[in-house]
Specification:
The protein is mainly alpha-helical and about 300 residues long. It has 9 helices and 3 strands.
């Protein structure tokens, strides 16, 4: 029962260049959340409802690492703390992440420095450069943008409400494609953002399970799988070897609220190194024009 096709990408080990990055050190293991809380709006009108809950214990076994660069070193000991987010809190926070993803991919795909001219003599180190897949790379990211937009709609169908209409990014992010190992470039940002998205959905699975909403926990798991695909696609575009470089996905956050705090530089512009830009969340018509025929139809 797939939701939408999402890409998978991995993050290199934390380097000196990563110092000062907006995400804080990760929590170790995902903790068992608090007792069940508030209810959720009725089942959405779209065909997302899935009965049954994901087993929180399986996800809790994953170890944590920093979302902006992680290594294979095991954490010292699992951290346990109570999470107190309501259903509405989790829905709103995950929607904020999805709208951040929409803004990131749309801005990149609309930037000549990222995409290139699309005509003969493609500029080096753009998505249309044959080194990084040419038009296929552009199509992959167009589909990723469409998937993020669909995820946002799924969450709103469940009752999530929009909290932010714009986000901040370092200027360097859209100045060139770069590599996953070159900090603040487009591919580095894709890698690290998608790793953070994976982490928030892992935390959301556990929280919804603890709140007794198995349908929402399953939906979070299905979206999470697509985010993993996005991370991998970024590594394909970057030419990273191996592309599938993690055995267990990185559980960056103990609670969904931890992810919201880590997201703060993208909400305020405070915490980044160098100049930043404020970018409005694209409209559905803007996204449709940029995605063209490369939509994701599998549900």
């Amino acid at each position: 029962m797939p939701i939408t096709n999402k890409g998978l990408v991995a993050v290199p080990a934390l380097s000196a260049e990563d110092e000062g990055a907006p995400f804080p050190p990760a929590q170790t293991a995902l903790a068992q959340p608090a007792a069940p809380g508030a209810g959720v709006r009725a089942t959405p009108t779209r065909g997302l409802f899935v009965k049954g809950a994901l087993a929180a214990g399986a996800v809790a076994a994953l170890t944590g690492a920093a979302p902006l660069g992680f290594s294979a070193v095991a954490p010292e000991a699992p951290e346990t703390k109570a999470c107190n987010e309501t259903v509405q809190d989790v829905l709103n926070t995950t929607l904020t992440f999805e709208r951040l993803a929409m803004t990131f991919y749309h801005t990149g795909l609309a930037s000549a420095a990222i995409v290139g001219s699309g005509r003969g003599g493609h500029a080096a180190n753009t998505l249309n450069d044959s080194r990084i897949g040419g038009a296929r790379s552009v199509a992959h990211l167009q589909t990723a943008l469409d998937q993020e937009s669909q995820h946002a709609q799924f969450l709103m169908d469940y009752g999530a409400t929009v909290q932010h209409k714009s986000f901040y990014f370092p200027d360097a992010v859209f100045a060139g494609v770069g590599y996953t190992s070159h900090s603040d470039t487009f591919l580095w940002s894709l890698d690290h953002l998608e790793t953070a998205f994976i982490g928030i959905y892992l935390a959301a699975v556990i929280r919804f399970g603890a709140l007794g909403h198995g349908d929402l926990a399953v939906t979070m798991g299905r979206i999470l799988g697509t985010e993993c695909e996005h991370r991998a696609l970024g590594r394909v575009i970057a030419g990273d070897d191996p592309v599938n470089n993690v055995t267990l996905e990185v559980s960056s956050f103990t609670c969904v609220g931890d992810a919201a705090k880590a997201l703060n530089p993208y909400l305020t512009g405070v915490g980044f190194k160098g100049a930043t830009r404020q970018v409005a969340v694209p409209s559905q018509s803007d996204i449709a024009r940029l995605v063209g025929p490369n939509v994701s139809t599998e549900m």
